[in-house]
Amino acid sequence: MDVHFSGQALHCQMSRAELQRLSSGRSVELQVLLPRNHSFKISIRPTAIAADRGGWQLDSDPTGIWLTVPRAQVELLGQTTSFAERLMREFEVSPGERLQVILEVIADKEQLVGDVLEVTPQSAD
């Protein structure tokens, strides 16, 4: 998994193999080693809880970021191998401040056409 920060966005790109891991109920993690024996971890884990019941969750502390995504929405990804596909969700991180989280699955290299297919789950909001 590759992770990029820009502005108020956290962009997580994963391979098809990592998507398979999430779809099977296991987490995907990226751990970055830092000076003085520190590290920072970003973990994405699936949950059986539906989106409208609080399935999307974002938590953090000085050692990492933990994102929980409804498994049903993870399974929406990976329907095609010729496009990159993504899920997007915004989280309120403080009053008036929001963070956009983007989960993107990279298209298979041999079939990559340079386009992105956006998967937009419907919310109950």
Question: What are the salient characteristics of this protein?
Answer:
125 residues, mainly beta, five-stranded mixed sheet, 9 strands, 10% helix, globular
Number of helices: 2
Strand percentage: over 45%
What's the overall average pLDDT, rounded?
A: 83
Approximate helicity band = under 10%
Question: What are the secondary-structure elements, in order, as H or E?
Answer: EEHEEEEHEEE
The total beta strand count reads 9
- Reading side by side through the largest sheet, how are the strands ordered? 1-2-8-7-9
How far from one another are the termini?
A: 30 Å
* Assembly category: single chain
Q: pLDDT below 50 for ≥5 consecutive residues: which ranges?
A: none
